[in-house]
Amino acid sequence: MKKINFILAIIFLTLSFLFIFKNDALAVYVPPSKLKLPTATKPKPGQCEPPCNADEKCSWNNKCVPRGGGNPTQPPAATATPIPTATPRPLTATPVPACPKKAQGDADCDGNVTFKDYFYYVAKKAGGTLPTTVNVDFNGSGTVDAADRAIVVNSLLGK
Q1: DSSP 42-92
Q2: How far is the CA of 115 from the CAs of 13, 14, 15, 131, 149, in angstroms?
Q3: Per the domain annotation, does 50 fall within a domain?
Q4: The whole model's pTM is what?
Q5: Residue 112 CB coordination number (10 Å)
Q6: Rounded to whole angstroms, how far apart are CA atoms 47 and 108?
Q7: Looking at the DSSP assignment, which residues form a beta bridge with residue 57?
Q8: What does each C-alpha distance from 90 to 87, 93, 97, 112, 159 come to in angstroms?
């Protein structure tokens, strides 16, 4: 009977994983070479986009300006503007919040051992990328293995 309950729990956890993380913010790394971003084209100097009206002309920065004033081929003269300087502040260490239930299987250090912690373990074992605040090495061995799985499963089953 315990084996059947355990198998049902695993099936439930797997189905819940698909439901919980369907719209959650699990990070997925996409190499920059695989991203297809639109490229912007700059108009050539003197070609305004959209084209100017009959009573306007294209200025040096590709903006339509009224005809008859200024020199549209030259940018305005630069003026000196003082740059404020930052006052240095002493560096202080930011305290790292404690994770008291890490040894019981709390991967995300929210103070509770939940199915989400188990799914973080499953995602890591499947080769997924986890948020930097999540650590599924519950026993501190340096590797994520079956011992870590046993820790979180036993906590979920109340053992």
Answers
A1: PPPTT--SSPPPTTEEE-TTS-EEETTSS-TTSPPPP---PPP-PPP----
A2: 7, 10, 11, 16, 12
A3: no
A4: 0.41
A5: 13
A6: 55
A7: 65
A8: 10, 10, 22, 36, 48
Residue 9 lies in a domain: yes
Provide the 10 A C-beta neighbour count for residue 54: 6
- Average pLDDT estimate for 5-24: 63
33-81: per-residue pLDDT in tens? Answer: 666 666 656 656 567 777 888 788 887 777 788 877 555 456 666 677 7
Domain span including residue 110: 2-26+100-156
Measured CA to CA, the distance from residue 6 to residue 156 in angstroms comes to: 11
Do you find a cis peptide bond into 97, omega within 30 degrees of 0?
A: no
Residue 21 predicted with pLDDT over 60: no
What is the number of domains present in the chain?
A: 1
